[in-house]
Write a structure and sequence with these properties.
Layout lengths: L2 E5 L5 E5 L4 H10 L7 E4 L5 H12 L3 E4 L5 E4 L10 H4 L7 H10 L1 E5 L12 H9 L3 E5 L2 E5 L7 E3 L5 H11 L5 E5 L5 H12 L3 E3 L5 E5 L7 E4 L4 H13 L3 E5 L7 H9 L3 E5 L2 E5 L8 E3 L11 H8 L5 E5 L10 H6 L3 E5 L2 E5 L8 E3 L3 H13 L3 E5 L1 H7 L3 H7 L3 E5 L5 H7 L12
Parallel strand pairs: 2-14, 3-13, 9-10, 17-18, 21-22
Antiparallel strand pairs: 1-22, 1-23, 3-5, 4-5, 6-8, 7-8, 10-12, 11-12, 14-16, 15-16, 18-20, 19-20
The structure holds uridine-diphosphate-2(N-acetylglucosaminyl) butyric acid.
Length: about 450
Amino acid sequence: MATFRIRGGRRLEGAVRAGGRKNSAVAVLPAALLADGPVRVDNLPRIVDVAIMTRLLISAGARLQGDGSGALWIDASQFGPKPVDSVWAGRLRASYYLLGVCLGRFGEADVPMPGGCDIGVRPIDQHLKGLAAMGAEVEIAHGRVRARAPRLHGAHIYLDVTSVGATINLMLAAVRAEGTTIIENAAKEPHVVDVATLLLAMGASIVGAGTDVIKVRGRNGLLGCQHSIIPDEIEAATYMIAAAGTGGDVTVENVIPRHLEPITAKLGEAGAEVLEAGESVRVRGPRRCRAVNVKTLPYPGFPTDAQQPMTALLATAVGTSTVTETIWDGRFRFVDELLRMGARIRVEGRTAIIEGVPTLGGAPVRATELRGGAGLLLAGLFADGESEVDAADFVDRGYEAMETKLSGLGADIDRTSAPGDLADTLWAAEDPAGRTAGRL
Ligand code: EPU
C-alpha cells in the first residue's frame, strides 16, 4: 500500500494543468467499441480507472494501441461478443457501459455487476429499466448481468432519478437500435455531452445532449473517428480548493471555466478571488476562508465529487458551515478521519455541520474511497505538522500524478511506493498479444 506523507502549512503557488476528465474517459473508451472502424481518443488521463477500462476492452476482444502522448487507437473490428472479464470489471463502476455497448452492437451482453468506490448504495435499476423498454431480456445471476435482444428498438424512457450512468448507457444502446429513443429526465453533465459528441462524430443521430430530454435515432453502422476528452472539472476543482485553503495563488490550466461555475461561486462566497481567463482559472485564497453552505446536486449544481475536498476546506474556515450530500449517502465516512486531525464536524443524516477551527493538526489517516482520499490529502496540506495519508490506491484511480502536481505548486508531499502498486503494474504491463494497454 502506498501512502502520502505531507508536511502541511505551505502556501501553494504556480500553475497546474488539469488532465482529461475521468468520468468522460471511462465512457468514451467503451463507446468507441460501437464504431465499425478505428477510433482515436486523445487527452486520456493517466489514471488507474482508465488503465482498468483498457483491460476490459482488450478482454472483450478490442485491439488497442497507444502512441505515448495520451492518445489511444481502439480498433473494435474483431471485438466480442465475449463475456466481459469479471476480475477487472468488479473494480470499476463504469464497466456497466459495456452492457449498453454489447447489447447495441451484438444484441447480447454478459457483464459482471459493476464495482467502484464504496460511497453508498449504487443501484443500476434505471439502466436495466431503460434496456428492458428497448426490448432486452435482462437477468441478474451469480454476480453477472446477462441481457439479450435480437435487435434493440427505440423506446420512450423516463428516468425516475437523474442518473449520469443510465443516461449514457441508454444513449450507447440506442445509437444502433431500430427507431428513435427518447430519454427524459436525462443527466446534463458535460461528460454526457462529451460522449454524445463522440457518437455524433461516428455518424450517430442525437439531439438534446446537455438538456433533460435526449433523442437518439438509431443507425445500422457507425464510422471510426477522432475524439478529444474534455478537461476534468473535479481534478481542477480539487486544485482550486487546495489553493483557497492554503491562502495560495494557483492557476489551473486546461479547464472549461463554465463547467467550474458551482466551485467558482462557492469559493468566491468563501472569500477567495477566482479569475477566469480563456482556458484557465486563477484562484487566490484569503488568509482564512469564511464558512459557506453547500448542497450537492446533479449538474449544474455543486458536484458530489468535489464535496469532500470542499468539506476539508470548510473544516478550517471562520464560522459554521453546512454541507448537504444528496447523491451518495456514504460520502461522509471520511469525516471520522478529519476528526483525528482536530476538525469539529457533526454529521446529522445527510448534512455535516462544520465548525471551522483555526488549524488542523497533522495525523495518520486512511481513506476508503477516491474523493475521500483527495479530501484527506487536502486536509493534510491545510494542517500544521506531518500527516501520513493512506490513500494512494484510491487517489490513483482518478487523479493523475497528484503528488507530483502538488509538489510542483510548492506542497511538501512525497509518496511511499510499495511493490505491486496497482497504478505502476497496470501502466507498465503489456498483454500477451503485445498490444499496449497502458502506454498512453
Ligand atoms: N441511481 C439509482 N438507480 C440507477 C442509477 C442511479 O437509484 O439505476 C441513483 C444513485 O444511487 C445516486 C443517483 O442516482 O443516488 C445518481 O447516480 P448516477 O447514476 O448519476 O451515478 P453513477 O453513474 O453511478 C457517476 C460517476 C460518479 C459521480 C456520479 C454523480 C462515473 C463512472 N461515476 O456515477 O463519480 O459521483 O455519476 O455525478 O461516471 C467519482 O468520480 O468519484 C464518482 C463516484
